[in-house]
Structures are given as C-alpha cells and as structure tokens.
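User: I'll paste a sequence; please echo it back and then give the predicted structure.

Assistant: Echoing your sequence first, then the prediction.
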Amino acid sequence: MVRNDRLHAGPQAHDAERDQPVVSSGEVRWLSTREAAHHLGITTRTLYRLIDSGQIPAYRFGRVIRLKTAEVDTFVESARIRPGSLEHLYADAGPSELDA
C-alpha cells in the first residue's frame, strides 16, 4: 500500500515542491512576523506598528508572535485604494507634469 505523506503528515510536514507547510482545507495557516512582513513587502518594524495599532490582528504563543494568513489578506483588501481618492496628490500638477 502506498502512503500519501501529505494526507498523513503531522503539523510540521512540508510540501517539498513549494517549501510550504501542508495544511488541509479548514485549517488555519500561520505566518511568522518575518513571513508576514515579507508577504506585505514591509519591514518587521512596520508590521509591529500595524499590530500594536490594532490594524492587523496577531497572536502571542509564549514568546512567539504569529499572524493568520487570512487576516493578513483581509488587511491587504481593506487597504485597497478607491478609484478617484488620489486626486489630491496630482490635482495641482501642471500640464507638463501630467504628460511626463
């Protein structure tokens, strides 16, 4: 009988192709602060500020801080810029600046 290690793997098992933990549907995918900062394209220091201000939820397990991937993705969607909301940044631009 061939055993599929992805189905029978413990919580520390990894998908060798993508180097990602194997997580079945319905399970929470946790990110370290370093992984979350990399995912967002920000420094860990900026991530700590976002966590401290309550903009991104995080969880402390002993000395370790973890974030749920789904909540990080929700933060990204909440930061989406609405069309037409940036006009104040370019409204004073002269014709030569807009053509560049």
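Residues 28-79 form a domain with the Arc Repressor Mutant, subunit A fold (CATH 1.10.10). Helices lie at 5-8, 33-40, 44-52, 69-78, 87-90, 95-99.
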